[in-house]
Design a protein that fits this description.
The complex is a heterodimer of chains A (482) and B (249). With 482 residues, chain A is an alpha/beta fold. Chain A contains 13 helices and 19 strands. Helix content of chain A is 29%, strand content 29%. The chains are: A alpha/beta (482), B alpha/beta (249).
């Protein structure tokens, strides 16, 4: 507990100390993916030997693997040797000095989201040396968590301070060899978040990376591990509705969740990375592996995601329903505009008896974007009495975009019940005219209809997130209907 | 207030309105009757600004402004309201939320400040009672799962909150049983005053027993072929449209 408190203190303090960036600046690794790169990362992180071994093994496996090509997305080949796997954050002198130097479009967006000025500076990557509210936020935050015995720290800290937990659970949900990008992440992951909720503890607050300021610089290969011990509960918020300034094009994160007996994890994401310009130039490739393991009986893992950013999104937050009567949920809104591509969905793997899963996916395509839902529901022979309900709706704006649905159902237990409903619709002229004739402007009318379409998912989000997500959809759709 | 002169409009190249002339003064109620396909609904939609109709000739002036140059939401701002024949369902959009956005949209157009949530709620509570709409429907998605009668009542309720200067009722009586019809008519009558005008589009005379018009116009093949008082409606009820349109049944 004490180390945890100290840890947060260091994080907060370090971010604002003047020497921080200078110190790290010398750490940038030359481009290339090899053993030396891993040794450098490991050394910089002050990692124990076992962690380095783990990375090296992952690299070995990665080299034997091939980049997958089954997703409904298209992009030029990635040269993995041309990437620098340990890039320092930009130095102060390279950063914008003030908001005057920041893209006015970005500022306009912040304004619309109602983000306070100081936070705008932080998000825009301006070196902030004035400490604003967050110090008090962090202090209260730290005390409350420590009191409950919750561990919430950076991944690097966890490797040093809680090796027994990390060794026990790391890679236990997403094995190193799970897929190409998971193997890459396992070799080169830079940092991320670690959460442990002790037995029979309800985490006293929603944990958010947004408050963990240093998480903003963890870079392209993030690693997150959340463990909810028996009878515990945690709600974890990832991301931020404001568009993030980011220099890295390829993002391949891995998120592992473990829920033991009677534990519940609620994991909410709002992803709004740079989607590229109207022609799709620039923009982030977001290739993420997220998986939750309902290891214990009656455990529950719930994924809620709102995806509006990135040039290419490729992710399937999944649940392994091992424990008897465990529950998996997936609520998703994926919005694509301009040239964005998204191939997203979920996997619900029913292994235990009486396991239940619910999938609600809402895809919205506008501009010339392509939006695909890909979902797997697998019922193993032993999953007696398993039930799944899937609802998958697509909404099209305009006539140059695409919506695709790829549902896979594998049912090996005759007693299981699997339901799938799908719909594709266009924003109808009737609906638009109805709202406009009442005095509502076209853009507001479109937002209203789209938000109504997403309502079932938004109600799963924590309150403040839901409000921001609604605003975000409006901003992402600007100019989609003219 | 409203002046329609020689209005011609077509849909997909097919002429529907072929020279409509109509003047509506403040406080007047005009009934537009006519057989199916005479252009009644087209007239309602052209006045409200629906896309898909091309005005090929003529003008529509509303309180000195050319209505045809305005977007549908601007027409609403000027005080035009259309009660739809088939009110559309909008899943997930709360009825009250939509109405608040509409009212504030209109107020913004007029340069008035937004109504506070408290004042808005007061207004809604008062009007929902007056129209006899089930209060439970206020927090449901717009028209979703409403019965035919509830949808029409919801239209009248919206009208009572938005307080238009000119309300166009497009076959508001269609699909209503007699009790629902009476209730809707009562809601409309409660809104009639010296400044507010109505255009009541209907196929049957029945509605006009309850919403008594000052004028009745008969529309046929895109033209007004006869205008009279409320007794004209009764005559149409007794004799049908054929004696006017000159066609065999």
């Amino acid at each position: 507990m004490a180390s945890n408190a100290q840890d947060l203190d260091t994080l907060v303090g370090r971010h604002y100390s003047a020497g921080f960036y200078t110190e790290i600046e010398q750490d940038t690794a030359p481009p290339g993916l090899n053993e030396d790169t891993l040794r450098l990362i490991s050394a910089k992180k002050d990692e124990p030997e076992w962690m380095l071994e783990w990375r090296l093994k992952a690299l070995e496996r990665f080299r034997a693997m091939r980049e997958p090509n089954w997703a409904h997305v298209h992009y030029p080949p990635i040269d993995f040797q041309a990437i620098s796997y340990y890039a320092a954050p930009k130095s102060d002198k390279d950063r914008p000095k003030s908001l005057d130097e920041v893209d006015p479009k970005l500022l306009e967006t912040y304004e619309k989201l109602g983000i306070p000025l100081e936070e705008q500076k932080m998000l825009a990557g301006i070196a902030v040396d004035v400490v604003f509210d967050s110090v008090s936020v962090h202090t209260t935050f730290r005390d409350k968590l420590a009191e409950a015995g919750v561990i919430f720290c950076s991944f690097a800290e966890a490797v040093r301070e809680h090796p027994e937990l990390v060794q026990k659970y790391l890679g236990s949900v997403v094995p190193v060899t799970d897929n190409f990008y998971a193997a890459l992440n396992s070799a080169v992951f830079s940092d991320g978040s670690f959460v442990y909720i002790p037995k029979h503890t309800r985490c006293p607050m929603e944990l958010s990376t947004y408050f963990r300021i240093n998480a903003m610089n963890t870079g392209q290969f993030e690693r997150t591990l959340v463990i909810a011990d028996e009878g515990s509960y945690v709600s974890y918020l990832e991301g931020c509705t404001a568009p993030m300034r980011d220099e890295n094009q390829l993002h391949a994160a891995v998120v592992e969740l473990v829920a033991l007996d009677d534990a519940e994890i609620k994991y909410s994401t709002v992803q709004n990375w740079y989607p590229g310009d109207e022609e799709g130039r620039g923009g982030i490739y977001n290739f993420v592996t997220k998986r939750g393991d309902c290891r214990g009986a009656r455990s529950k893992i719930s994924w809620t995601q709102v995806e509006t950013g990135s040039a290419i999104t490729w992710k399937y937050p999944s649940c392994l329903l091992k424990g008897e009567n465990s529950i998996g949920e997936f609520y998703s809104v994926a919005l694509t505009n301009n040239r964005q591509q998204a191939d997203t969905g979920t996997k619900m793997v029913h292994l235990g008896r009486g396991t239940r899963s619910t999938i609600v996916s809402k895809g919205i395509s506008a501009g010339r974007s392509q939006n695909a839902y890909r979902g797997l529901v697998r019922i193993a022979p032993g999953a007696e009495g398993a039930r799944n309900y899937t609802q998958c709706d697509s909404l099209l704006l305009g006539d140059q975009c695409g919506a695709h649905t790829f549902p896979y159902i594998e049912c090996r237990n005759p007693g299981a019940q699997v339901e799938h409903e799908a719909s594709t619709s266009r924003i109808s002229d009737d609906q638009l005219f109805y709202l406009r004739s009442r005095g509502i402007k076209t853009e507001d009318a479109v937002n209203m209809i789209v938000n109504g379409f997403c309502k079932e998912v938004f109600k799963e989000l924590p309150m403040e997130f839901a409000v921001e997500a609604q605003k975000l959809l409006g901003i992402s759709l600007e100019g989609a209907v003219g | 207030m409203l002046e329609i002169k020689n209005l011609h409009a077509e849909v997909a190249g097919k002429p529907i309105l072929r020279g409509i002339d109509l003047t509506v003064r403040p406080g007047e109620t005009h009934a537009i009757m006519g057989p199916n396909g005479s252009g009644k609904s087209t007239l309602s939609h052209v006045l409200a600004g629906r896309e898909g109709y091309t005005v090929t000739d003529g003008s529509v002036t509303f309180n000195g402004k050319s209505l045809l140059d305005l977007e549908p939401e601007e027409r609403a701002g000027e005080g035009v309201f259309l009660a739809f024949q088939y009110p559309v369902e909008i899943p997930g959009v709360n009825n009250t939320y939509m109405l608040k956005a509409a009212l504030n949209g209109i107020r913004a157009y007029r340069g008035e400040p937004e109504l506070s949530a408290v004042d808005f709620l007061k207004l809604v509570k008062a009007r929902v009672k007056a129209v006899g709409l089930d209060e439970g429907l206020l927090n449901r998605p717009v028209n979703e799962g409403f019965s035919g009668g509830e949808k029409k009542r919801n239209e009248v309720f919206q009208m009572s909150v938005l307080e238009p200067l000119l309300a166009i009722l497009d076959e508001t009586d269609s699909g209503l049983d007699i009790d629902a019809l009476k209730a809707v008519a009562e809601g409309v009558n409660a809104l009639r005053d010296a400044n507010r005008s109505f255009i009541v589009v209907t196929h049957y005379q029945r509605l006009l027993d309850y919403i008594v018009p000052d004028y009745v116009h008969v529309l046929s093949k895109g033209r007004i072929i006869k205008t009279g008082g409320k007794e004209l409606a009764l005559e149409l009820e007794a004799r049908g449209y054929d004696w006017l349109t000159g066609e065999a049944a």
